[in-house]
Amino acid sequence: MDTYSFGFVYFALAFAQTKGTLNLLEDSHFNHQASCEDYRYDGMRLLFAKVVIGGKVFDKMNCGEAVPLDDVTKDIPVVKFSQGKYLANGKIRGGNIYGEYNPPNPQPGQGVHRFYFFVFEQEEKLVDGIQIANRCGFDIDGFMSDFGLKPVAMNMFRSEFQSGSCDSFDQEEVDFGDFDEGNWNCGQEVQLDKVNSPEAPTVTYKSAVPGQKYLIAMVDPDAPFKDNPIFKSWLHWIVGNVDGNDLDKGNTFNGDTFTAYNPPTPPKPKPGTHNDHRYFIYVFQQGHMLDSNAEVKSRKNFDVDAYMEDFDLQPVAMNMFRTHS
């Protein structure tokens, strides 16, 4: 290993999930569709690179894990490989970038995508000026052959488009009493004691149209535990028939409550785990006035999409925060 330098070609390959089983690796081809357990090249099982994305660590124990798109930040991930002099500490920014980082962005209707990270051992230092001109149809086997690259490690996670992701809609302002975070970033992590007041938050949507009616709903898709959300989604609040003139000013309490407010109360995580919960607050435009039929008694397994369809709701804005006990 001392005669080689390590280089990480900065890219992630995304593939839409297809029907049928995955092919096992062939000795002569670099199969980028193999599962984590089957990953081999020329008869040799590849090692696992440790990848850190938005604070979440991926290693051999959770390679292939499904990850909510909102957990995948736009920041360049940290990649660590124990046998690399600099990669052991995740120091990849000192290398040459031959393809700028492009964060995962699966589109509606494409299903689950797989995002792979590969570490290659270089025979020699690569020349400057190498550019990957086309992301679509990238030939990884040809790239390896052209530049004498040997695959030594990999990792992979799965993700798919979320209709409730932070980039899907306009962002409304949310105010939890003393915790005035109207301008927070969608997805921001906050302390539980700042958002667990029994009083419902104030929601303001500046683009609300006077005379138009709106409905606000707050849900937790990670109940009771993010790695096993059997209650997805837990309903925390529904208030409807809010006039746009009131919503523009944050006067959401002038609407009709269809589900009483239930503040965030994520359970304590299991030993050795981190039970981070996401709380989505949606603003829907109503197609008509709603009555008591819109009331929801059961909080667990609330189906946001079905509720939207049943009551002619169109999502126009949302916000989301994260917290844990």
TrEMBL record:
InterPro entries: PEBP, PEBP-like_sf, PEBP_euk. Gene3D superfamilies: PEBP-like (3.90.280.10). PANTHER family: PHOSPHATIDYLETHANOLAMINE-BINDING PROTEIN, PHOSPHATIDYLETHANOLAMINE-BINDING PROTEIN 4. This is Phosphatidylethanolamine-binding protein 4. It comes from Acropora cervicornis. The lineage of its organism: Eukaryota, Metazoa, Cnidaria, Anthozoa, Hexacorallia.
